[in-house]
Design goal:
By secondary structure, this protein is α/β, with parallel strands linked by helices. It is built from six helices and 19 strands. Among the domains are: 33 residues; 140 residues, Arc Repressor Mutant, subunit A (Orthogonal Bundle), CATH 1.10.10. The N and C termini lie far apart (174 Å).
């Protein structure tokens, strides 16, 4: 304490005389200056601390290799070491945390975690035991308390995060509402802004994934690509692409009129081991169903004037066996009919999977072939019967001729 008072007196004299310049300050700091350090340090290592500012490092006891510049910076740090605090209240309540770097007003204010880096006003302000976090920007990761391994870059990025860990947010308000969600990645203004407990989601673009709150393992790429609910394992690709169901992929918005690729088909998994409840297609989904279909030509009303050929979903539904109508209209997602589905949007838009028509078409062809084969057999049986009848008629005719010839001979003899 006597040494500290002596240093203050000397600095006061130098300051009043105008002789305290940068070189003098560096010299004093290099000698282990601690303006408000505790008495009787127990380790020579604490002499390697550097403090500048009112109450900076005031309560340090055994912490070493700390650097604090700013009013109350690292004020209550006791045994934490290897910390750097620049700015008023930066790392103020750090007690035992090690290896932290805080630059900005109240950055890492409540910290007791290790190896965090905070740059900006109120960044990681409430972090207590969270470790390995990196945040840059106004209030980034401000609410984080115990979450670890998070990276936030941008104003209010991961603002509400508490125990959630291993999240990455880049952009103003990215992952703003996240609390317990983990392993999410958001890049862009308000990307995944509404996510609270969702896990393993990826969003890239302005407001990408903004509609997701607790959905898991979803991917949103493109400005405004999002979801109208919380789904699992969904993907929305392109500007304004809207995910409406789990385990599905949406390509583009309603203005997209063509999907172009080098190949002309998509190869799908059809392994018997990946399927269950396998049974032959019902007879009423064969020829009778196909005969009711109404092929049409049409154009979309979204500005695309391309003439197309296909079917109308409502007509297809009408052609289906009555027992299947409820599967189209009332089934829960992933429990309905793949051929015709009603999308989970405001209009409950119908969607048709044209590939699902292949099996009924094949069934119809098989039934038609069976009818043809039956007719062929009938024709063969008829030809066989006709041949037998012709043979019998010939035999009868030959016998009749023989009888007539014998009768003639009798008549001739009688004369």
């Amino acid at each position: 304490m006597a040494r500290s008072k002596r240093v203050r007196r000397e600095m006061s004299k130098l300051s009043k005389s105008g002789a305290l310049g940068m070189a003098g300050l560096v010299l004093l700091l290099g000698c282990g200056l601690s303006w408000a350090g505790p008495p009787n340090p127990t380790s020579s290592d604490i002499n390697n601390n550097t403090a500048g500012g009112t109450n900076a490092l005031s309560f340090n006891a055994t912490g070493a290799y700390n650097t604090a510049f700013g009013s109350e910076a690292l004020e209550f740090s006791t045994s934490g070491g290897l910390n750097t605090a620049t700015g008023s209240l930066a790392l103020r309540n750090n007690g035992t945390g090690r290896g932290n770097t805080a630059s900005g007003f109240a950055a890492l204010y409540s910290n007791n975690g290790d190896y965090n880096t905070a740059t900006g006003y109120l960044v990681l302000q409430n972090n207590s035991t969270g470790s390995g976090n990196t945040a840059s920007g106004f209030q980034a990761l401000q609410g984080n308390t115990t979450g670890s391994g998070n990276t936030a870059s941008g104003g209010d990025a991961l603002l509400s995060n508490t125990p959630g860990g291993n999240n990455s947010a880049s952009g103003n308000s990215a992952l703003y509402s996240n609390t317990t969600g983990i392993e999410n990645a958001a890049f862009g203004y308000e990307a995944l802004v509404g996510n609270t407990a969702g896990i393993d989601n990826t969003a890239v673009g302005n407001l990408a994934g903004s509609g997701n709150t607790t959905g898991t393992a979803n991917t949103f790429i493109g400005s405004l690509a999002s979801a109208n609910g919380d789904y699992i394992n969904g993907t929305a690709l392109g500007h304004g692409a809207l995910l409406t169901a789990s385990n599905s992929i949406v390509l583009g918005n309603t203005s997209v009129s063509a999907i172009l690729a080098q190949v002309s088909s998509i190869t799908a998994i059809s392994d018997r081991r990946r399927k269950k409840e396998i049974r032959a297609l019902d007879a009423d989904l064969g020829l009778d169903f196909i005969q009711k279909l109404q092929p049409v030509s049409y154009r979309f009303n979204n500005g695309d004037e391309t003439e197309r050929y296909g079917f109308i979903a409502q007509d297809l539904e009408e052609a289906l066996p009555t027992a299947l109508h409820d599967m189209v209209e009332t089934s829960e997602p992933e429990h309905g009919l793949a051929l015709i589905e009603r999308q989970n949007d405001n209009d409950h838009t119908y969607r048709v999977s044209y590939g699902e028509l292949t099996a009924p078409i094949v069934k119809a062809i098989q039934q038609l072939q069976q009818e043809i084969e039956a007719e062929r057999q009938q024709n063969a049986d008829l030809r066989h019967a006709l041949r037998e009848q012709a043979a019998a008629f010939k035999a009868e005719n030959d016998a009749l001729r023989h009888s007539i010839a014998a009768l003639r001979e009798q008549v001739t003899a009688a004369r």
